[in-house]
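ugh ok so i messed up the first submission bc i forgot one of the chains. this is the corrected input, ALL of the components this time, i swear. 760 residues overall. if the numbers dont match what u have on ur side tell me asap before i send this to the collaborators (the ones from the other lab, u know who)
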Amino acid sequence: MKTRLFTPGPTPVPEHIMVTMAQPMVHHRTDEFKDAFVEVNENLKYLFCTEQPVLTLTSSGSGAMEAAIVNTLSRGDHIITVNGGKFGKRWGKISEVYDLINHQIDVEWGSAVSIEQIRAELDKAPDTQAIFLTHSETSTGVFTDVEAMAQEIRSDFDGLIIVDGITAVGAHEMRFDDWELDIVVTGSQKGLMIPPGLAFIALSDRAWKSTEKSDLPSFYFDLGQARKAFEKGDTAWTPAVTLIMGLKESLAMIRREGREDVWKRHARLAAGLRSGLTALGFKLFASPPSNAVTSAYLPKGQEKFQKVMKERYGITMAGGQEHLKGKIFRVSHLGYYDEGDMLTFLHYAERTLSDLDIAFEAGVGVATAQQTFSTLLSTQ
Amino acid sequence: MKTRLFTPGPTPVPEHIMVTMAQPMVHHRTDEFKDAFVEVNENLKYLFCTEQPVLTLTSSGSGAMEAAIVNTLSRGDHIITVNGGKFGKRWGKISEVYDLINHQIDVEWGSAVSIEQIRAELDKAPDTQAIFLTHSETSTGVFTDVEAMAQEIRSDFDGLIIVDGITAVGAHEMRFDDWELDIVVTGSQKGLMIPPGLAFIALSDRAWKSTEKSDLPSFYFDLGQARKAFEKGDTAWTPAVTLIMGLKESLAMIRREGREDVWKRHARLAAGLRSGLTALGFKLFASPPSNAVTSAYLPKGQEKFQKVMKERYGITMAGGQEHLKGKIFRVSHLGYYDEGDMLTFLHYAERTLSDLDIAFEAGVGVATAQQTFSTLLSTQ
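and heres the new structure output, hopefully the right one now
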């Protein structure tokens, strides 16, 4: 049985990159590594649409989230976070550890925060130093329109806008400089198509300025150290060398395809999958939906849908987290996926519905997705 | 030209493990990953000679060093560190970030701290909460007899003994439970023979107890979270999955060879290389020397020795760090090395000496190492 990974991180690694990462070790203080790292750094800037350095950390994305906080804020600072999913909530959890005053906006999981909610919270807490947003909330599949929100907030807010782009970068348009974002973080095992182990973070001039007055302690995640090393084409600590050698290849793929076309492909795959699932009778969960991951309710009384997909058809997807466990499933189209992969998923979803004696019109999932792809291809 | 890596981290990765790590991605919340991780955890306990959990972090070794401090100590705590090399000094640097009171013992780089120096410092600072040792100081190649020191200190010291085992674990005998150590950290790209990106940390009951009263903030490196996940065969954050799949294989190799035989092999390789270098006229730098890495002075006026070895013979070794730059070179025999590798290094060292018109007796480096290997094999 062929097995296929449809989880929103780790995502599949392109075959030639697996082979690249299996090359004999190079030492990280050699020209060979430095040349690769300099290329990686240039292409990360391209992907982030920024002139700022995009720093590479050896950690998961959560490490970069902590780095965003400990480098720019101080004890007692007021912040606004959005609890609309597991990862939005994580900003609040980190802030507790560092004695920040967290004004948390609770949003029903599956929905996005509105600009009015942010405005209202800002009115209540005018001393806010930082607003934290989640561009694509992996746990729910919800998209937040960071571009519109940043534009609106920026008109009269001079604190930091800090964005979890962990599943958004590579899937959604994100223009770090143009949108005047202050921090964006992401991870390697998402849109960047390599295994987990690296995280990335970019800071605006405003964010770099705030690092000067931050009083929170950090050593491993000290971005001043990271930047000093970056400027020499180096890292502060021994980096995950093999992953960086793989990243060089995956960023080269993104550059060849073109970031705008990568974003369009994700939009097309997401729309196709959503239309196919809907045609099969599934109820979508997230509104508005992310282009990185699609979430839908499990068929009523048929929570084993996910299990059958895995055991009979080799399809690994993700389930719901926390109170959404057993209620929804999540399908990734983040990174190394194409239209064929979406059709494959829908085909086995149809097969599984048959196995579970759930009524649907045979072939309609696949056919609907195909139509969506064609329509979008001609209009995108 | 064949190229060979003789650096003390990253160290060479066995060929079959490179291939293992090039397998398609598995998700970290699957039985396949969990089974691998449970085996890894068992074999880490075997290697550390402990019944305590050995926690896996996705970071470099420096991240685990920070974890050791932030989880067990509190602001204003007195500690003793040893500045006898770049990595011993690092304990002091981390402690500054967290407002600890650091009683630093300065030791000439190339020498080990003595028990009398530790005693004297303890007498001056009787409130010391933790003593930090470096089992094998990578920057100098010096070995510290942690076993003897811990035994001596432990007689009347009830604070923490915290050990940087980053290049020692896998090269030197280290019995975490029997020696009553409180924390040992190591990294993946050293004796564990896989690429950089993972770090490991074990805590004694005494150290776990001290985590309860520690007031230093941490999120990503919160070992309480790591332990909770560990107990479910899981990690707190998305781990570097491919490296863990490789680690499963490298730990299996160590288990097959037997930890005692692995330690003996390192002792033999180190002794052979030292004897060969000495026979060729090199002056060794470290006293006492580590079995992980051998350091020696560069030939006088011939600092290009290292460069010629690399460019003409494909041998990458490490140079000196900080004030030792251009003074010494360092050769690794840590991890995936055997006697043949040491003879290869010595052979090309001889060739390079010839190229540089430095007098030596042809073949004496290789022959001396061979004799040392034979002698040790029959007596070990």
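quick check: The CA atoms of residues 17 and 25 of chain B lie 15 Å apart. that seems consistent at least. The two ends of chain B are 36 Å apart (CA to CA).
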